[in-house]
Request: fold
Amino acid sequence: MRLSADTQNGTTAMTATQTRSTATTTTGNVAAIDTIVSASNIVKTYRTGEVRVHALRGVHLDVERGEMVSIMGPSGCGKTTLLNTLAGLDTIDGGRILIEGSDLAGLSDAERTSYRAKRMGFVFQFYNLLPVLSAVENVELPLVVSKIRPGTARERALAMLAKVGLSDWAEHRPAELSGGQRQRVTIARALVNNPAIVWADEPTGDLDSETADEIMHLLIELNRTQNQTFVIVTHDLRIGQMTDRIIRMKDGRITGSEDQRRNDMPKRHCGGSATTPASTEQHSM
Reply:
């Protein structure tokens, strides 16, 4: 990761520019990194009467396919706004966002909803499970929206619950599950459609530290085995240190990026200082 500061019209804008790693094959061909998220100069302003809140101020961000990225910063810095705009849940006032090469802003509401249902998964702090449905019925919902045949949808939902260790709890409703179990159901629902990217907003924020570690271990394992991209908003440095890369935000801007990956150790370790990179490139504004 290389960070550069570009000065335009007297304003310093952080540009997070990825150093394009390449892999040379036996035939001498070079394969470039596949970028799944590309955001350029994103601006978002909320207006209430005469009051304007500049939530995002010229944000640039690229995310590699299969990468697990955390976005960190103080409350009100724009973390959740950035996640929502990247996922197409909120509009932007300026800039451009490409997901898998597609500009979601150019799609109709119906096309955008269909794209999110088929290619994206969402994990929230407070689960957002329907209380009247069982675990397996909650997991089935994205498949129903995608018009998957009921029998196939049930089979895939049960398989995903098994993957997150909840086979024996498939028929239980959310009120009958612990916080950690509910979040596992949420994760199963997010992944049942085999999405290209999963957006997670404080996925461990409502959990105790032990359960939070279990959930992160699960996300890391799914990221490794299924090569799915995760973008995680968190206020917890311990959680951020479990991801591939930490993006730092302040006052609506990206102020730094810390690569957690090292060539001399496994991809990630959960907890502690083992995740501290050998060298960190960071620019503070």
